[in-house]
Each structure stands twice: as structure tokens, then as C-alpha cells.
Design brief:
2 domains, single chain, Quinone Oxidoreductase, Chain A, domain 1, alpha/beta, about 325 residues
Length: about 325
């Protein structure tokens, strides 16, 4: 079968399309024929999901049909439509742990299903499991036009919250207005506190999702309300260090937390899938959570898909179909 890999040096991440052996599922695994897979920025950042000097099969999420099930699997049989965070999913076939697979809701296309798991599960982690966002609360999302940003916007609106989003592109922000973006701030700079405080009546926001990184971290802290929370999920600006206002952290009882799946255990991953399936799949089935797909590329067009992503030309998700 064909499989996309990435070889990294200290300065370069090179794509390679390989011919590899068909994998065989273990007792609690599924062999899935991949129909669609999401493309995620973190996979291509050296020092991110791939360390320099290593080679790694690409892909972290997909949807497809089960073609073979391990002897101890119970939930899914051959022919079932499944989706999930499946490592190595930018391949024609991928192995999936059954505990990390979810059923594809009726009415969801392959492209939608293949691009939903990562961003939506990350959004649930930030907004619900750790962020405690409530109906009527305020959410600020820096880099709101990214895949995670759009998922956070949609989930927040489904929860009944109000959303402020930043982006360097007015055109991109305009595309999110139909999704319910309450306040669109066109900026890439740490200069949005005054507008955020004005919109919230001087109180600040209850939760910040920071997709951008260290260059806006201090400004995000300044935008927080009493007992506000700040989630760090990305650093597309490449700035990995930032000052922390300890006085504000102390006096306002703030919570700062990170969101990553990199070091979680198998049990933690399975628990996250179970919570998402219980809490969020009904919203997906009802049409309240649907990935905003920017563009779909064929399997052999991954280099073009990567270039499109790195040009920051997209709003929402980029998808590869196999």
C-alpha cells in the first residue's frame, strides 16, 4: 500500500511517498481503509510531532471503512464506518485501536468525518473538560480561522457562549460570520485588549484559546476575567517564551493550561474518545458541529496541500482523500 512519510533534518521536513506492507491488526485493533484524512500543521513543524533526524508515517486523523477486525474487538465489524485519531493515517490503510475509534454519524461525509476528530476533540478538551466554558460566557480565540479555531468557535456557539476571534485577514474573518463569530478583530499583533474589554463591559473573557503563541500570550492574560482560564494549543508564530504577569495570575485567580495529546497514555486517549462520543457526537449528528472544509486534495497531492496550508491561505480544514 502507499503511505506518506516525512524525513526531517535540523532545517528541512521532506515528504516521501513510500510503498509499505499492509499492516495486520492486533487483537484489539481495526484495519481501516482510509477514505479521507485531515492535514494538521503540527505534523510538519520540526521539533513538534516529529523530531529532527527521524522518519515518521504522516497523518493523525482519518475516517474510513473497517476491512478487518482483531479477535478481541467488540464494537466494530468489517464494513463499519469509523473515524478517529489514527496515527499514520495519511496512508491507504491504517491501524486503529478500537478504543480510539468512533462511529461516523449519518449524514457526515467522508471529508467531514476525516477532518473532525483532532480539532473537535482538542476543542472539547479546551472548552469543556479543562476550560469550563458556560452558556453566556465569553471566549477569545487567537487565530480563529485555523482548524482548531473554527472548531472552538462552533463548539462555543453550540454551548451558548459568545466568541471574539482574531486573524490577520479580514476576508477570512468575514467567512466566519455565518458561524456566529460575535466580534472579529483583524490583527496579528498583541493590541486587542482594549477591544476585548470594551466588548465584555470591562470584565474580560472567561476563556482564551491561544493558537498563535508567545507573541500574544501576555496580551491574552490581560484579556482574562476574574477566574479566567487560558489554553495554549499552538505557536504558529514560533515564539516559545513569554512573560507571565504573576500579580494578575495571583490576584485574578487565573488558570493557565496546555492542550496536547503527545504524552497521554492509551487509557487517557480511550477516556477522551468516550467523553467525546457521549458529549459531542450528538451535536455532530444534529448538525451543530461540522468541520468547515477549506479545500480537498487527492492522495498524491499532499505536497500541494502542505504548501496551501503553509501559505496560510486556508480557513478551516484541509483534507486528503484516498
Amino acid at each position: 500500500m502507499r503511505s506518506w512519510w516525512m524525513n526531517t533534518t535540523d532545517t528541512e521536513a521532506r515528504l516521501e511517498l513510500r510503498e509499505v506492507a499492509m499492516p495486520e491488526p492486533g487483537p484489539r485493533q481495526l484495519l481501516v481503509r482510509v477514505r479521507a484524512a485531515g492535514v494538521n500543521r503540527g505534523e510538519f513543524i520540526i521539533g513538534g510531532l516529529v523530531k529532527a533526524g527521524n522518519a515518521k508515517a504522516l497523518g493523525i486523523e482519518a475516517a474510513g471503512e473497517v476491512v478487518k477486525a482483531g479477535a478481541e474487538t467488540r464494537r466494530f465489524a468489517p464494513g463499519a464506518r469509523v473515524m478517529g485519531r489514527f496515527p499514520g493515517s495519511l496512508s491507504e490503510y491504517v491501524l486503529a485501536n478500537e478504543a480510539e475509534a468512533m462511529p461516523v454519524p449519518e449524514g457526515l461525509s467522508w471529508e467531514e468525518a476525516g477532518s473532525l476528530p483532532t480539532t473537535s476533540m482538542v476543542a472539547q478538551d479546551m472548552l469543556v473538560l479543562q476550560g469550563g466554558l458556560q452558556r453566556g460566557g465569553w471566549l477569545l480565540v487567537t487565530g480563529v480561522t485555523s482548524g482548531v479555531g473554527v472548531a472552538s468557535l462552533q463548539m462555543a456557539k453550540a454551548l451558548g457562549a459568545r466568541v471574539i476571534g482574531t486573524s490577520g485577514s479580514r476576508d477570512k474573518l468575514d467567512k466566519l460570520r455565518p458561524l456566529g463569530l460575535d466580534l472579529a478583530l483583524c490583527t496579528r499583533k498583541p493590541d486587542f485588549q482594549a477591544q476585548v474589554m470594551d466588548a465584555t463591559g470591562g470584565a474580560g473573557v472567561n476563556l482564551v484559546v491561544n493558537n498563535v503563541g508567545g507573541s500574544v500570550f501576555a496580551e491574552c492574560v490581560r484579556c482574562l476575567a476574574f477566574e479566567g482560564r487560558l489554553a495554549t494549543v499552538g505557536y504558529v508564530d514560533g515564539v516559545l517564551k513569554a512573560d507571565i504577569d504573576l500579580q494578575a495570575l495571583h490576584a485574578k485567580r487565573l488558570v493557565l493550561f496546555g492542550v496536547s495529546n503527545k504524552m497521554t497514555s492509551a487509557a487517557h486517549k480511550a477516556d477522551a474518545v468516550a467523553k467525546f462520543e457521549q458529549q459531542m457526537l450528538p451535536l455532530v449528528a444534529a448538525g451543530q458541529l461540522r468541520p468547515l472544509i477549506d479545500r480537498v486534495f487527492a492522495f498524491d497531492q499532499l505536497p500541494a496541500a502542505r504548501a496551501h496550508m503553509e501559505a496560510d491561505a486556508h480557513v478551516g480544514k484541509i483534507v486528503i482523500t484516498a
